TrEMBL record, chain A:
Residues 41-250 form the Aminoglycoside phosphotransferase domain. Transmembrane segments: none annotated. Keywords: Transferase. The keyword Calcium does not apply. One of its GO terms (molecular function) is transferase activity. This is Aminoglycoside phosphotransferase.
Length: 312, 102
């Protein structure tokens, strides 16, 4: 990874922050955890510094950060309540947490993830919190797909997108304006804190806000629907969410009428990103990416208003 | 083999010397060429004898969790389960990358 000025400066800030609250000798283990256009994240010992996306508004990030500080048993609490400015980017500081091991599917904390989401969804949203950004990010992924290609297989994805209701395409506001949602749940959004075996917490508040809670369940739902997540793991996730009283789906019976639109939208988003990524790398879709695109293709013959039907 | 209707695995049963395949998911039965005739012939031989026992009822798998109409074809039939060998699917494929990104 090339060290651009932001990364260099962020690494220095993480070091300073880490040393400011560490009493004992610092082992000074430092690493770049992520360096993408929308986020640069570095770790120094027990401290993580994150430079948020260039277009992040302080008026939106600050209440999101405050929400995390208020819910320490659900969201990883930040070190400090106010983002700092660094080279025009907003930077926040966090304690380091142990992530899910991508090499070990059996260790994925499906029950913990679902329980955290149910508790989040049941928590009254603090006033002033902006909308959850899930639909906006799906729309962004589709816009990028349109800019990159309109050839097959993008046609399948775009057709599936057009069948979705306006709220799921971020064209109208979500009708739910009170439920607190994470907005971008996936397995990279969970860490154990304190390390190495503290309880699981949700991280990444960039998309946090009020909205349709089914969105937070919809990525696992989409993985399951695309054949990427086993029925067993999906059942564990859904069962734990229901057991914790999560409001996004009915307590029993068929959950799909409640999940269908959001699961379609996230399938479309995932497929759009996969196609753009593969096109940029000038490679074919791999079998996992192809499975997601195939699901978009099948959506064409099963419009959302028939949600809840079972394949015969 | 896989059920042509719901794609769940089919199991072979022997009924009076005739091999039939029954789907573990939808309980549909697949007969090879000539097998229906063999069964009919045997039924007439038995005449008013005891009824031929039906093939076993669907095994009691843990309830399949269902899925959307646009779901992958393997839904609804115990296609997973970690045994491998069914169409190349394995548990949580894509675990290493897709399940960890936005």
């Amino acid at each position: 990874m090339t060290a651009h000025p932001l990364l260099t400066e962020l690494t220095l800030r993480a070091r300073t922050e880490a040393h400011s609250h560490k009493q004992s000798a610092c082992p000074c283990g430092a690493a770049t955890l992520a360096d993408r256009p929308d986020a640069t994240v570095v770790r120094h010992a027990d401290t993580v510094a994150k430079a948020h996306a260039p277009d992040t508004a302080p008026a939106e990030l600050t209440p999101r950060l405050a929400t995390a500080a208020h819910l320490p048993g659900i969201l990883l609490p930040p070190l400090g309540r106010t983002p700092v400015d660094l080279h025009g980017r907003l930077v926040t500081f966090w304690p380091y947490g142990e992530p899910v091991d991508p090499e070990n599917p059996d260790s994925a904390p499906w029950e913990a993830a679902a329980t955290l989401l149910a508790r989040l969804h049941r928590t009254p949203a603090p006033p002033g919190l902006p909308p959850m950004r899930g639909p906006a990010k799906a729309a962004l992924a589709v816009a990028r797909l349109l800019a990159a290609t309109r050839q097959r297989p993008a046609t399948h994805v775009l057709r599936a997108w057009r069948t979705l209701p306006a709220w799921a395409r971020a064209e109208t506001p979500m009708s739910d304006t009170t439920t607190l949602c994470h907005g971008d749940l996936h397995l990279g959004q969970l860490v154990r804190h304190p390390v190495p075996d503290g309880p699981w917490h949700l991280i990444d508040v960039d998309d946090l806000g009020v909205g349709e809670p089914a969105w937070d369940l919809a990525r696992p739902a989409a993985w399951y629907a695309c054949g990427l997540l086993s029925p067993d793991d999906w059942s564990r996730f859904l069962g734990a969410y229901r057991a914790a009283g999560g409001p996004a789906v009915p307590a029993d019976g068929d959950p799909w009428p409640a999940l269908d639109v959001a699961a379609r939208a996230l399938t479309v988003q995932t497929a759009a990103r996969a196609i753009v990524k593969a096109a940029e790398a000038d490679r074919a879709l791999d079998d996992v990416e192809q499975a997601v695109v195939d699901a978009c293709d099948r959506m064409g013959s099963a419009p959302p208003q028939l949600a809840g039907g079972f394949a015969k | 083999m896989q059920c042509p209707k719901c794609h769940a695995p089919m199991h072979t049963y022997n009924r009076n010397g005739v091999q039939i395949e029954q789907c573990s998911g939808c309980r549909g039965i697949f007969l090879d060429y000539g097998e229906l005739e063999s069964l009919t012939r045997m039924e007439s031989q038995w005449g008013g004898g005891p009824a031929v026992p039906p093939p076993p009822a669907a095994p009691q798998y843990p309830a399949a969790p269902g899925g959307p109409a646009w779901g992958a074809p393997q839904h609804g039939g115990g296609h997973y389960g970690g045994h491998g060998g069914h169409g190349g699917h394995h548990r949580n494929r894509g675990f290493g990358h897709m399940l960890f990104s936005s």
